[in-house]
What does this fold into?
Amino acid sequence: MEERRGGGGEPRLVSDPVCGGDCTPVPPRRLKNRDFPLSVKRRRSGSAPEHKVHCVLVGDGAVGKTSLIVSYTTNGYPTEYVPTAFDNFTVMVVVDGKPVRLQLCDMAGQLERLRPLCYRSADVFLLCYSVVRPCSFHNITTKWLPEIRQHCPGTPLVLVGTQLDLREDVQVLIHLAQNQQRPVGTEEGRRLAQELGAVSFAECSALTQKNLKDTFDSAILASIQQTETNGVQQQQKLTLRKKTPDKIKSLSETWWRKINCLMGEQNCEFK
It folds into this structure.
């Protein structure tokens, strides 16, 4: 259990992820909703209500989105690159003692028609680029942000630089130099996050798991904070609606008293 700070500065505790809610981490294997034991679902039916966070990972293909999810949910690392079309992963975490079901949607960077289907229910986005693929960093502003803002203009974003372990890899650096390129720097990513209005910025590695949990914690807390903010705003609207009729009635009485005064039908003494 680690302490994280929400948008208001208050510390919040986020547990390690547990696959399926009750099972322990396993070797690399994609756990989907259909893999959860029925007994687990029955046990949860009478338990405390859980908060759901739908997190969507977007970015160019081959930047390591699937690897992030597999490493985070199973403590394993995929040894082969297999292009993803559409995958859903679910883990359970505990935030401030309350259960949270984290649903992770892994979308292909190449399938433009399918992506909006996953966007509609998103609570938070992980906007991913590879620190050793400058073109993927460039595409954040030219492709991914406009697409997300078109479908989900108010959904919080977390900007994520992936494949951090390769930034100092000699072979990678040689390959980039041959193409007159260099890795994307941390400050470049931080500046872009500020320009995009992202709620958080992180660089992480699925292989070494450096900053991996912090990255997903940021997404979870951003979604929860957004939900809480929306709830407060909704409550304020309901309160305003309840008070509005009385206010209108009061204004109407004062208005009619003034009219009667002007018409000489009553004493014109107002407090």
